[in-house]
Amino acid sequence: MKISTEVQLGAALLSNSVSVRVHRCMGAVAGLCEIAVPASVDVSAAPGDDLVADLGPADQAGTVFTGTVDAVEARGAYTVFRALDSRVDAARTRVNEIFSDTTTDSVMSDLADAAGLTVGDLAKGVNVVTYLADDGRSVLGHLVHLAELGGCHLYVDVDGALQALAYTPAAPAWQIEYGGALIAVTAAARRGGGPVEVRTEGAASTNGPDAAYWPTTDTSAVAGVMQAGDLPGIKLWRPELRSMADATLLAASTSLRRLQRSRRVDLRCLGLAEIELGDGVMVQDVPGADASLLLRTVAVEHRANAWEGFITELGLEGVGT
User: Fold this and answer.
1) What is the per-residue DSSP string for 10-38?
2) 89-166: what fold?
3) 172-190+263-318 CATH
4) How far apart are CA 195 and CA 201, in angstroms?
5) Mean pLDDT throughout 48-65?
6) Where are the chain's structural domains?
7) pLDDT tens-digit profile of 213-238?
8) Would you give the distance in Å from CA 5 to the centre of its chain?
9) How far apart are CA 138 and CA 126, in angstroms?
10) Assuming Cys at both sites, which of 30, 222, 241, 305 could form a disulfide with 200, CB separation 3.0 to 4.6 Å?
11) In the chain, what is the straight-line distance between the N-terminal and C-terminal CA atoms, in Å?
């Protein structure tokens, strides 16, 4: 199979003569793309220039990264261009704004706009009466916090758009079989889940500290719905929320997320350019495994070079069921 490598680097279009490494994951860490260009190739790109990388079979190449050049480094016979996705812009932006009577996804959209990010699909979040986005943390820090309040994974997709994907499991988009695309697999399990209690601050706080918890000091009203697993319980105070319903949703999503993290599987595969963060993956026919595993993609690394060919490594977590 012939692999196509095409990189739009500033005004230059590079193909097949370059090495590409892309690493992207859920959360606060900006996606990274490194392009190694032979020093004999004249490329005038500089920090601030756009970079778009396409990989895949010659007739099916797809975009695997969109970002901005952040650094240029000479390494002997190669010049390495390092680009980051738009999360770096959010990390470098700070604001001071107050949002009232809105939802977490709406606040995320407004903050992303303030940082110059393209906004994709943001899963519906929870209600917030007041949210203070101060400069004590970056816009990215606020986005991560708001995503957690709304029970969502935060990431930037291959086209550079901000996405928020609910923790709830989705149907598998990929079936990866040992002896097919799958080259190697590593799996680990640990204790996970456990009860989660969320308390919020309501208007009743004016009646004294004992009344500040919504709706009463009866903690059973806001206990997590998802309580599978054997970790000790945790208690969270989230004054941004004001209703028992939203507190219970957060408790359930947090407990689910703790359970999902209890299973980790890393795959090494033949190149899978089209796989995206958040995709469901069914891993099948692994020697020694009792059954097929349903997992969610939380990290992707693509490498295309002369010595490995085209390799994709996936970081997967359980779906919490």
Assistant:
1) TTEEEESSSEEEEEEESSSSPPEEEEEEE
2) Phage tail protein beta-alpha-beta fold (3.55.50)
3) 2.40.30.150
4) 20
5) 89
6) 3-85, 89-166, 172-190+263-318, 196-260
7) 444 344 444 444 444 455 677 778 78
8) 25
9) 21
10) 241
11) 38
